Amino acid sequence: MVMSERVNSTWIVPSDMHGLRVDQYLTRKIGRISRMRAARIIEAKDFLLDGNPVKLSLRVKEGQTATLFRFAPDQPDDVHSFDVKIVFENDAIVVVNKPYGMSIHPSANCLYKTVTYWLKAKYPGQKINPCHRIDKETSGLVVCAKKRDTESIIKKLFMKGEVKKSYLAVVQGQLKRSQLIDKSLGLQGNKGLVAIRMIEDSDGKACFTKVRPIKYCDDSDRTLVVCRPYTGRQHQIRAHLSLIGHGIVGDKLYTHGEIFFDDWCNRRICDAQLIHPRHALHASSLAFKIDEKKYIFKASIPGDFYGLINL
C-alpha cells in the first residue's frame, strides 16, 4: 500500500481530559495505541500543545489546542468502498445512514474513511458537518448540518437531551423483560488494561438506558433489543448491556473482555477469529424539534443482523 502524505489533525482538549499526562491523554484520545507508542509520538515531536512540542511529564489543560502529525493510514478513494445512504435532505440538513466501519471524524486510524470526508467529496465546495457522533463500528443515523446556525441548534439539542434516540442491538442470551438500566459510568483509566473502557462507578456520571426485548432466537440464544439512551455517555449502551449480563454480539471490549480487545488491537487476534466483524449496534431512529417543526428519521435493520438472529 502506498502511504499518503504526512498530515495533521487539530482539536481542543476537553474538560474531562484536563490534568492527564500527555502520554495518558494520547492513549485515551486515539484509543488503540499503547503508552509506549504514545511516548514515541511525543519524543518524535509529532504531538504539539498550543503549537509547541511537549515532554512526557507535562499534563494537558482544558482548552489547549492539540495537534497530531502522522501519515494517513488510508487513501482518499477508500471512502468509495462505503455505501452511504441519504435518508433525508433539505437546505439545512443531510441525514445519512452510516455503514459500520466508517468513522465520523478523522483519527489516527483513518483520515478518509469518514463521514466528514464523504460529505466533502459528495458536496464539493460546501461546508457540511456532522452534529453528533456514533462509534465507528455502530451503523445508523447521523444528522449533518449545512448551515452553521443549524449545526449549533442541533448540537445544543443533543447536549440538552432533547433528541429522542433509539438503537437496535443483538445481545447474548435471553433478555426477558423491559428494564431501565440505572448505572453510573466512569472511565476505567489506569484501573485496568484498557483505559477507554467504561466501568460502573458510583462517583461517575449518571447514566440511564431503557432496554426492551423485541425477539428472542432460541437457536442462537440471542435477543434483538431496542435501546433508548436518556443520557449520552461514551459507550453507554454497550457498557450497560454488558453490566446486566447481555453483552452485544461482536463487542470486542465489553462482551469479549479487555484482554481479548487488547489482543485484537495488537493484532494477536485476526478478523477470522471474530464471532462477528463488529458490535451489533445500530442507530435506528432520531426525533427532534426545531422551531416547532418535528423531524423523525428511521433506518431499517442492517443486513448483517440477519446472520446473527432469526428475524
Structural account:
The chain has 311 residues and is of the alpha+beta class. The protein has 6 helices and 16 strands. It has helices spanning 22-30, 35-43, 115-122, 148-159, 236-243, 258-265; strands at 6-12, 47-49, 52-53, 65-71, 85-89, 93-98, 129-130, 139-145, 164-172, 179-182, 185-187, 198-200, 208-217, 222-229, 281-290, 293-298. The strands form 3 sheets. Strands 5, 6, 7, 8, 9, 10, 13, 14, 15 and 16 form a 10-stranded mixed sheet that branches. The protein has a 4-stranded antiparallel sheet with strand order 1-4-2-3. It has a two-stranded antiparallel ribbon with strand order 11-12. The longest helix is centred in the middle third of the chain and has 12 residues, at 148-159. It is globular, with a radius of gyration of 20 Å. The termini are far apart.
Structure characteristics:
311 residues, alpha+beta, globular
Q: Major sheet, described briefly?
A: 10 strands, mixed
Our measurement of the CA-to-CA distance between the termini, rounded to an integer number of angstroms, reads: 40 Å
Shape: globular
Class from helix and strand fractions: alpha+beta
Low-confidence stretches: none
Overall mean pLDDT stands at 91
Q: Could you give the order of the helices and strands?
A: EHHEEEEEHEEHEEEEEEHHEE
Total of helices = 6
What percentage of residues falls in helices of 4 or more residues?
10-25%
Radius of gyration: 20 Å
Number of strands: 16
Strand content: 25-35%
